[in-house]
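Subject: Protein entry, chain in single-letter code together with its fold tokens

Category: Structural biology, sequence-to-fold work with a learned token vocabulary.

Notation: Tokens come from a learned vocabulary of local backbone shapes, not from coordinates.

Start of record: The labelled sequence and token lines come straight after this line.
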Amino acid sequence: MADCLRRLISNETCRILQEKLENWYKDYHINSCDQNLTRCCEIMELNSMIQGQLFTILNKTSQEGGHYAGVDTIKSRLLPWLGTCFSSHTCGSSSHLQESREKDRWMKELACTRDQEIHHLEKELNSTRLQLSFVQQDLAEAQVALEDTKTKSATTLLAAEDEIVQLKAELKASRVKEECALKNLDRMSNYEHQLQTLKDEIAILGAQKSLLQNRLALSRSPSPRSMRSRSPSPLPKRSSSPGRARLTNASRRARLVERFSDIYAQERLDAQSLLRSYVDDLEMVQRIIYTAVVESFRAAKMAFRQFKLRVRKTLSLSYSGPESLEDMVMDYIVRQEDLYDVQASVCEVIRAMNINPKISFPPETDFIMISGLIRELCRVAFSMQTLDPPLDISFGTDGELFSEYKYRRSYDSEFTAPLVAYHVWPALMEEDSVLVKGEAVTRRGAVWSQRGRSRSRSRSRGRSRSCSLRPLSPSAGHSRRLRSRSRSSSPLRSGSPSKWACAELRRSWL
């Protein structure tokens, strides 16, 4: 009986009956007559189903109580209710009884179907529980493997940390060794510089010694009065001992040639990369760099001539040493190359580039952006003028016949073209011999196209604002102070020799 009562509760037929009654009550005035009758029939069917189940429970309950159990309750409550029902519905009792039997049979079938579904769900639940147990086992195994992996990774991490500490120690030791090696190298370079200085001083002292020996020999020779009858006394000649400029000429020449090649290989490419961010035309960029080289050498040579004239003019007033005046001038320039006002040459180069008709530049930028390359070129060109013979760059024009002796073709040239379209880098010359080859671009018909392009370009640019007000370098300030002192001294203005000017130059030497 308990199972029947449980099924009655699980079917929730009473709750459905109550909900349908409430919905029918809400929609009674809205529904039509047919709809209300249909709702009433549905509710009666559900009520009959509930009554059939209750009668089944009543029957089983009476059977459980025994043969005569529950007789008083049936007599007092069930029989009067049944009599009232049959007295009010005598006409359709048989039909109602048949309907109730069919409903009872339908409810039994529904209960059987529901029991089968419950049994099937219980099977699925058991299988799901079994799968869950398998998943839990797999999860436990994965956790164990994860713990093992964590342990191994921790061990590996500790070993890696130890190795990193060891590598850091080795790196620190290698850096210390490298610093020691660099210090030793600097010491060696200083030693070499000191050794070269000592060699130069020894050579100068040797020249002075020979001069003193010659003077001593002349002093020990017979007097001019006794030798007047024999032959006239020869005039004393200046010693031809080499100065510092001649002694270091070969080493300075090799260093300057190497520096010129380094500028072509490094500083030129850096300037070209910088210019390409503002100018899309590679040809124009290469023309700008070539013009900067040419103008830098021109400005440096002009500055060297002016500097040499000033030094010669100052030394000629009071110099009377054993060496020639020209050697003394060159020695002074070699020792005092820092007095060269390179910033003035840079500004002069930029002014010349601004009015050059073959090159152009965006108006929002300026050639001052490649002042680093120009400064290095001016320094190298100035130092090359102190050599004997001096070094210079080759003269080149667009449309000239290509010379394999002076230039090599660029990678984008037409190797069958005989004429030079434009130059990329000049050749370094020593009189008529080529020391370092330049680079040129050869193309067919490029000369006429370049002429038409040059006509379309503007002939001049605005004056560079960066060189209008420039600060004086320390070397330029020293040279200007020296010139102002030499000009302010009264002996120089009157034209008489000045021992102070010579002493000042020798003090700046040392």
In short: DSSP finds 16 helices and six strands in the chain. Residues 222-241, 455-466, 468-510 have pLDDT under 50 and may be disordered. Strands lie at 392-393, 407-409, 420-425, 428-430, 433-436, 438-442.
